[in-house]
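User: I've been trying to design a sequence by hand for this structure and keep getting stuck. Would you show me what you'd pick, starting by listing the structure so we're on the same page?

Assistant: Good idea, let's start from the same input. This is the structure you sent:
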């Protein structure tokens, strides 16, 4: 039941997917590099001329190891899930336009596989590595292999020590998802909402940074519904797959009394789809409201009336930033240690704004306003959390 449909996004679609600098970086930390400044970039792919000019500058400072041109290695999270498909497509397009040879490997959601792929990249003398790997325990050994070979790295979504970070603004994305879900549930169920259960599909294996996303989902939910019973909040390990989410949600439903509201979200769209399918298979979908995370499964969003929204991360645009960031670093230019996606809520009513393949339908289920004051208070808690010591650059300022 793993979601393999890529949910294709139009390459020319103008998506509101700009980036914000990390908490520890300022505009002075970066500079315009052939039209690319990670502090202000709008996400539209650079022209081949711009990318090739970047390569020319980078090669003056960091000559290709094999002498005939740059070879980059990209180890994908998993190549047959939609988020990985869209991420890979964007990175390939940028590498091709820049004249960079790209070696692609599949980490298969597995730490030992990620380490083996890193070793392969080292043996093949890549000039730069892009890592999308889920097991936080293997981050240090993967980075050790690259450090020993003098290979610089960008880590996508899950940080690794010493690598640049690009990806989800986990606290904000999570808080947005959870608060939207709570508002939608209030609209759907009225006063009965506090009789219901909130189920969150998490991903412990990826460590404390993605945990800020799912913890943020709970915090955002509670910001809207402060009196929601703590013992009505259930989480489970999704293993980052639709199948596991389906199986675990099937078990969780046995703990939820019949006839009460069921509100679900999770680490990504695939987890949420699995949870929704399990609830429907149990003939309880009439009690359900769901919000996705990632907006990479748009077909599910537009066709399933129980998925009211998804927090957009726009993986199809990741490559528009990652390849220029890598070339900027190879050229010896200052690059922020962490660059975040700018998230927006994607709904049936506005989906055509982000992908014209899908028509916009109806009106939003709620008039959503992000609870900024509550989020600021949540950020203060994160900044004081001892488990996040050493990760200050991955906690946004606001």
């Amino acid at each position: 039941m793993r979601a393999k449909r890529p949910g294709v996004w139009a390459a020319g679609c103008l998506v509101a997917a700009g980036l914000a600098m990390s908490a520890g970086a300022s505009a002075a930390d970066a500079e315009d590099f052939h039209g690319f400044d990670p502090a202000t970039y709008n996400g539209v792919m650079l022209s081949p001329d711009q990318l090739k000019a970047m390569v020319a500058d980078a090669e003056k400072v960091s000559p290709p190891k094999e002498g005939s041109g740059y070879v980059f290695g990209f180890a994908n999270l998993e190549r047959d899930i939609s988020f990985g498909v869209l991420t890979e497509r964007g990175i390939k397009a940028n590498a091709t336009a820049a004249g960079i040879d790209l070696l692609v490997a599949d980490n298969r959601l597995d730490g030992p596989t990620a380490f083996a792929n890193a070793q392969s990249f080292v043996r093949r003398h890549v000039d730069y590595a892009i890592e999308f790997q889920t097991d936080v325990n293997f981050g240090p050994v993967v980075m050790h292999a690259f450090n020993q070979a003098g290979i610089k790295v960008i880590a996508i979504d899950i940080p690794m020590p010493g690598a640049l970070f690009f990806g989800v603004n986990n606290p904000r994305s999570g808080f947005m998802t959870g608060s939207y879900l709570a508002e939608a549930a209030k609209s759907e169920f009225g006063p009965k909402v506090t009789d219901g259960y909130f189920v969150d599909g998490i991903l412990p294996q990826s460590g404390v940074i993605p945990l800020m996303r799912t913890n943020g989902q709970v915090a955002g939910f509670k910001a809207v519904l402060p009196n929601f019973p703590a013992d009505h909040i259930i989480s489970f390990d999704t293993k980052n797959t639709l199948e596991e989410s389906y199986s675990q949600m099937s078990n969780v439903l046995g703990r939820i009394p019949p006839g009460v509201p069921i509100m679900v979200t999770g680490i990504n769209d695939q987890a949420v789809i699995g949870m929704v399918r399990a609830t429907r298979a149990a003939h309880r979908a009439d009690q359900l409201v769901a919000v996705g995370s990632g907006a990479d499964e748009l077909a599910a969003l537009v066709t399933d009336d129980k998925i009211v929204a998804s927090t957009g991360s726009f993986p199809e645009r990741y490559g528009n930033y990652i390849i220029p960031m890598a070339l900027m670093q190879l050229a010896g230019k200052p690059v922020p240690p962490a660059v975040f996606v700018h998230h927006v809520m994607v709904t049936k009513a506005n989906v055509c704004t982000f992908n014209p393949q899908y028509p916009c339908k109806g009106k939003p289920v709620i008039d959503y306003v992000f609870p900024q004051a509550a989020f600021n208070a949540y950020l203060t808690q994160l900044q004081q959390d001892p488990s996040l010591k050493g990760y200050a650059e991955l906690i946004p300022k606001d």
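That's my pick for every position. To get oriented when you compare it with your attempt: The longest strand covers residues 288-294. Confidence is low (pLDDT under 50) at residues 1-28.
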